[in-house]
Amino acid sequence: MLTLSVTQSAPTSPASSAAPTPESNPWPALWALVIGFFMILVDLTIVTVATPTIIEDLDASVNDVVWVTSAYMLAYAVPVLITGRLGDRFGSKYLYLAGLTVFTLASLWCGLTTTVEALILARVVQGFGAAMMTPQTMAIITRIFPPAQRGSAMAVWGATAGVAMVVGPILGGVLTDGLGWEWIFFINLPVGLVAFAMAWRLVPALPTHEHRFDWLGVALSGVAMFLLCFGIQEGHQMEWAPWIIAMIAGGLALLVTFVVWQRLNRAEPLVPLSLFKDRNFSVSNVAIACMGSIGASFGFPLMLYAQAVRGDSPTEAALLMLPMAVMSIFLAQPVGKLTDRLHPRQVLGFGFAISLVGFLLLLWRLEPGIAVWEIAAPMAVIGIGNAFIWAPTAATANRNLPMHLAGAGAGVFNAVRQVGSVLGAAAIAVLMDARLAHYLPGAAAHGEAGAAKIPDPHIAELFSKAMQQSLWLPAIMYAVGLVAVLFYEKPRHEGFGAH
Predict the structure, then answer these.
(1) Measuring CA to CA, which residue among 187, 467, 474, 168 is closest to residue 322?
(2) Do residues 100 and 130 touch, judged by C-beta distance below 8 A?
């Protein structure tokens, strides 16, 4: 059915597996890729803690600043399906380096902007750079590691995503407090240069092969995602005007058209639907979409609560997430080893269940005047659960796929994660706007959720309720993920269950 499978049965087939020779060591290449991958994922959440400061400095609304993150996510999500194929065609290493260059230069642009509109535009370009990089990291890892080590390597890749989601706000708080919000972007310049030098030297240039690019699929998926996300995020602000409803309906219609076209396309579809015949790949995509949504959504209400209600500085607010980061980092290695031995239903079921418990504890106690430990303890519980989700999901997603579909699988997996992030950010903006409008009419529209503490105790209590209720969105997504991972089947890879 797919030209891809025919192409790779030709002389390029050995290159597709690209198992390293006995004397080669693929781990230095992995660490080189992880630096760049970590940087682009940190930028998904680093803005959240700086939100109140950016609102104040650029005279923006809450919704405007959420778009600073949403624009990045949307520009990241839409091209990521095609950039995976471009890497196969022109070389994964070189597309990664090109994307890293675009991302780093766009980071400089972000830090130099003086209006929220210019910042959003710069973040779009930054997102395109990230979209060029991400599929290459997963595809290169799949090709350079032998099957016996691939699970451990993908566990590192997945753990990097999980740790980056919580390190972002902490790093953002320290930089915003110490140097100004612009430095959450300027920090990418030295990191980008180091990542480029390491990747140039350590990442191998793998053989390439021809592709027929599904440009119609790119257009359909891109326009559908833009219409859906813009409509959802702006709906409350525009009071769900008929044209907003039309945008959302049009996005859904184009999404259905995209799926139908992928099925009818007999050449080489953008998303080979045969991937989803593997149940574990399908379940992993549901799980990672939930985690993308959670990672993009829960930071905004929590950071606004910490700074506007508690009066925390950006650094103090970000440090509330430190227990979550510590547990995720501490458990990454032991959990990674479990992915080769235990049924993914056990590992991820435990992870989602524990994270949900921790999040419900956080929701229960999120009120004005609570002690720091009453936030830190649930965050630690959430961190334990997340450690059992990020790496195992990434390791399980491509485990059963044939090598000739590894690149396509990497593109789909990353696109789905980003789609979840985009929709999560859009939905949390709607919820925060709606709850603030309910409790404090005019606060969201006029940017009154600034960096300063709210002096009136009654208003602080109402603001706290608005943020607390907004956090039900990520709690629900943890519950959805828990149900989804119960449908995992036993992995089929060689050596499963061996000690």
Answers:
(1) 168
(2) no
